[in-house]
Predict the 3D structure of the following.
Amino acid sequence: MRLSKLQKYIILQGFDAKNKLDRKGLLNFYHTYKKRPSKEIMVNSITNSIERLIKKGLLVGFGELTKERTFIQKIKLTPEGKKVVKKLLGEQKRLPLKLTIH
C-alpha cells in the first residue's frame, strides 16, 4: 500500500497518541517547509489525506456528519492501521538462538 508523506505523518502521529488525536496538531507537518502553503490549502490537503486513510480502513474519524459534508475533529488508528505503522517503523528481527540447558 502506497502512502504519501503526509499520510505517513498522520498515522505515525496517531500511533504516538494514546487516545484520539486532534487534527489541529497535524498542521505541524508543514513547519518543515521553508515556503509554506496557505492555511486553506494545508487544511484541505490534511482533510483529503484523512478521508483517504479512512477509506483504506487505517483510521476512524470522529466528528459531525451533515447533509452537505463531514467535519472530522479527531482521529484514531484502527488495528489495521497499527499494523501498517509497525511496518513503517521497521520490525526488529528475532535472532535464531537456541537455548541449551546443561
